Amino acid sequence: MAAATAPSTASDGANGSAAGKAHQVGAPTNPMATALLTDQYQFSMAYAYWKAGKHADRAVFDLYFRKNPFGGEFTVFAGLEECIKFIANFKFTKHDILFLQSVMPMCEDAFFDYLRKIDCSDVEVYSIPEGSVVFPKVPLMRVEGPVAVVQLLETPFVNLINYASLVTTNAARHRHVAGKSKDLLEFGLRRAQGPDGAISASKYCFMGGFDATSNVLAGNLFGIPLRGTHSHAYVSSYMSRDEIPDKALTSKDGSRVCKDFVSLVKEWLQKILLADSLCGVFGETNQSELAAFASYALAFPSNFLALVDTYDVMRSGIPNFCAVALALHDLGYKASGIRLDSGDLAYLSIEARKVFRAIEKEFNVPAFGKMIITASNDLNEETIDALNKQGHEVDAFGIGTYLVTCYSQAALGCVFKLVEINSRPRIKLSEDVAKVSIPCKKRCFRLYGKEGYPLVDIMMRESEPSPKAGERILCRHPFLESKRAYVVPQHVEELLQCYWPGTSNKPRVELPSLEEIRGRCMQQLEKLRPDHIRRLNPTPYKVSVSAKLYEFIHSLWLNEAPVGELQ
Amino acid sequence: MAAATAPSTASDGANGSAAGKAHQVGAPTNPMATALLTDQYQFSMAYAYWKAGKHADRAVFDLYFRKNPFGGEFTVFAGLEECIKFIANFKFTKHDILFLQSVMPMCEDAFFDYLRKIDCSDVEVYSIPEGSVVFPKVPLMRVEGPVAVVQLLETPFVNLINYASLVTTNAARHRHVAGKSKDLLEFGLRRAQGPDGAISASKYCFMGGFDATSNVLAGNLFGIPLRGTHSHAYVSSYMSRDEIPDKALTSKDGSRVCKDFVSLVKEWLQKILLADSLCGVFGETNQSELAAFASYALAFPSNFLALVDTYDVMRSGIPNFCAVALALHDLGYKASGIRLDSGDLAYLSIEARKVFRAIEKEFNVPAFGKMIITASNDLNEETIDALNKQGHEVDAFGIGTYLVTCYSQAALGCVFKLVEINSRPRIKLSEDVAKVSIPCKKRCFRLYGKEGYPLVDIMMRESEPSPKAGERILCRHPFLESKRAYVVPQHVEELLQCYWPGTSNKPRVELPSLEEIRGRCMQQLEKLRPDHIRRLNPTPYKVSVSAKLYEFIHSLWLNEAPVGELQ
């Protein structure tokens, strides 16, 4: 429902072509992603270009980043769909124009007439598919179009790609350390950076390999599976079993009614506390917790999952949970499991598993030992890694703060640099070589080796012939002369695809579904050589330029050197 | 425009009272802040409460945090207005209910009838005023109402307060280290966590003491002043002055027209390069940069601000800027200044200032030496502190990534804990004492000393008499028996005010404007004892409970101890 107004915002534009495309692509997920969501200086520049008659100059910009996040050697590219939706709906409303006039009173009226008319029908967007594994310096997107318009896209594009790619990468890293067999649940809504930070986090964590989210709105918007259990407050809200007015529970098959489920639970609790195999494990348990668990089971007999650490996990939470689970079992239901939200998760999960197994044996309840143990409480890559090293019995991890805020590195430094204008290549120099941009409108290829792993990415000038499988090609480091190697690829993949053809009549790649993008991400990570992805001292993946592009970069660099000529 | 649909979403609710209030308060800034923006388990709990007939039990929850962020000893509270707007508009749409039914097929239909009917007309919200300086453990908000409804507010409230308070605090810390006289500009849009992360950042950085933002949409939504200059791409987009078709500029007073402003600039550049006092400072400059500056000045003669580091600050950017600024001066205009975005900002600002002063003297241009120098490039608290220690000539700081993502600590751990239900106090225990909640519906006071500084915050049971100025009162640490002190306040301030009276008929405090909240924040920070606010080893501010509340906490703690009684 949130995005319902955006298409009409776009359709008040006079130009039918962009609005027509908008209709196919849909509105941005976030209704605040409007054409005003940009930096003020982009409008200043648009005005200066317009004043100088340069606004329609054909510019080519590359969007890329310079360094992989989280100390790793890979990044997952995400946010493309939102960028395409953004340009499909890009149009200034009357309200926008009035506001811009009020904050830029020095600008001529004719400039605002120009702004009123622009859309992205004349812009072309080439992009690596969303969900791909990507590396520094290689353009994730190449955006071509009238310089004033494309400049207005810089800030929103960087905004939409930066956090999306960062959090998808973070999710993929969590998936890698947790292993394929564990369930990963995103619990970040309360700690995310605002409502939309949370919604984006849920979407992109799912893309990066998570299984579910607790965020209901994200479930609604993207169809992501929802998961979660009750909180401590639910347990605290109960004082005793007298607060449960209706204690009856019908058995799963509907054949009988247990009139007092709570008494059945109490009977089981007695048996657990007296059982030989569990002897000494338990003292007496907290009765308000027991009441809370019983009432929760009455509401969710087929999905009973209890948070067991409100009072004391081993002395109260576990026996109370087991009593309720056994009572449910009597009536044909199967409890889901427990969640641990504090304490030593490795130790507690192992002890809980022992009890579940002992109960399976003692009371002959098949599969009780396999009860799902979910762990939460400030988990991140490091703590999961530490749990793995210690040994644990956790089946599912609920991860919030560190995942969604990307706590260990809260931003990916995406940039958007001019590489060509009116067919003239441009370079951005810097005393820091890492900040020098790679000029020219480029094509980019990923070269695969015999074993199916990608070997190297190569950027070339647009006019150069594509690399071919089985043909030797020289790959050079863009800046270091001595770093170069011949590669004979077994397979060649062109990276940049056309997602928004503008007026070029190139075939447009359709936007895939979230599930498809997630699948691509999983598949690409599996194809990557394991040493690029490992946590400790990963090997950098090689990114190169063709010999021709190398020569060109360095000749342009000389021409643009700090000291120019006086005309 | 983004928020335009939210009121109608609210008004489809049947209950006129909440919708009526909604009308006064307005819609949430972010249209995605809808009633579905919560954790799935809040709905599970709502159902379990409803099944047990407990949903209308009157619950009291406290929202608070446990530790000040960024290694500091203070926090600025923000996000209240968005919470009040959220509850004013809290209502499930038909679409929401259909979705909830689809993901909770195990719930009875009558529960969804219940959800259809609920709103926040029966909820009371008491809060510390937005923009106040706050401390750990003291409730920022107290929310009372039917337990199932208030539980649904937990996640959105924590989401809306957490990042808002964190980034406002971060902004206030940057203001503190930069000093009052510097201009602080928020440049975070491109690196923020999504569109709304950016918009919130702009709002709350302004609240925390920033002067302006580059984010146009935030300027539009909140009336925050907009600032910014061109980017490197603008400079790179020019090759030579031939690209400026119309070189004429009318003088500021309109009395004459300079037909070739670019030639005037070139004349000034020659004079600068030949001037005795500047001798040896400059070589020759980059001509495409000069063309870009001249064209920008033609568009913005009254607001000329140039980014001077595209090629080489001292050898190209500064002399090119000065030539354009002097040419503008000939025509009665005053240039604004420069921005440095790379290199040694302390050194470059000092060298640039020397040149500006030399030009003032050499060419007798009054105030040229006072040209505004703005610095950007990955600035944060530490780098500004380091610049201050080295000495610099920067007048304005443009701060992005580290500010808006709260890079050094990306989340504030706000929690929302049940403290009372049906007038019975509740406590959440934990093996970690810092995580034990302070039970009871409480009133909170700030006690001020003779010098006007706040001395201590005290929480008391609602039934206790308020502390009075001039009367001695015992303030106890909530958990450590030995920590206690008598205080005689000079002035007493009650912290929690009624912002949403529900059905209580208490007078409601109106929501202040953003400017007023910003003023409150500035004033509160000035009133704070300097040792609480300093960067290095700040003194913790004391937070206490009354003797009566202390006794009560500890008796309840004993009662709720892990081992309970079997009934």
Automatic annotation (TrEMBL), chains A, B:
Residues 441-552 form the Nicotinate phosphoribosyltransferase C-terminal domain. GO terms for biological process: NAD+ biosynthetic process via the salvage pathway. InterPro entries: Aldolase_TIM, N/Namide_PRibTrfase, NAPRTase_C, NAPRTase_N, Nic_PRibTrfase-Fam, Nic_PRibTrfase_pncB, Nicotinate_pribotase-like_C. Residues 336-435 form the Nicotinate/nicotinamide phosphoribosyltransferase domain. Its cofactor is Mn(2+); Mg(2+). Transiently phosphorylated on a His residue during the reaction cycle. Phosphorylation strongly increases the affinity for substrates and increases the rate of nicotinate D-ribonucleotide production. Dephosphorylation regenerates the low-affinity form of the enzyme, leading to product release. It is an enzyme of class 6 (ligase). Residues 1-23 are annotated as: Disordered. GO terms for cellular component: cytosol. Pfam families: NAPRTase, NAPRTase_C, NAPRTase_N. It catalyses: 5-phospho-alpha-D-ribose 1-diphosphate + nicotinate + ATP + H2O = nicotinate beta-D-ribonucleotide + ADP + phosphate + diphosphate. Pathway: Cofactor biosynthesis; NAD(+) biosynthesis; nicotinate D-ribonucleotide from nicotinate: step 1/1. Its EC number is 6.3.4.21. GO terms for molecular function: glycosyltransferase activity; metal ion binding; nicotinate phosphoribosyltransferase activity. Residues 1-14 have a biased composition (Polar residues). Residues 36-162 form the Nicotinate phosphoribosyltransferase N-terminal domain. Keywords: Glycosyltransferase, Ligase, Magnesium, Manganese, Metal-binding, Phosphoprotein, Pyridine nucleotide biosynthesis, Transferase. Catalyzes the first step in the biosynthesis of NAD from nicotinic acid, the ATP-dependent synthesis of beta-nicotinate D-ribonucleotide from nicotinate and 5-phospho-D-ribose 1-phosphate. Helps prevent cellular oxidative stress via its role in NAD biosynthesis. NCBIfam families: NAPRTase_put (TIGR01513). Belongs to the NAPRTase family. This is Nicotinate phosphoribosyltransferase. It comes from Oryza meyeriana var. granulata. The lineage of its organism: Eukaryota, Viridiplantae, Streptophyta, Embryophyta, Tracheophyta.
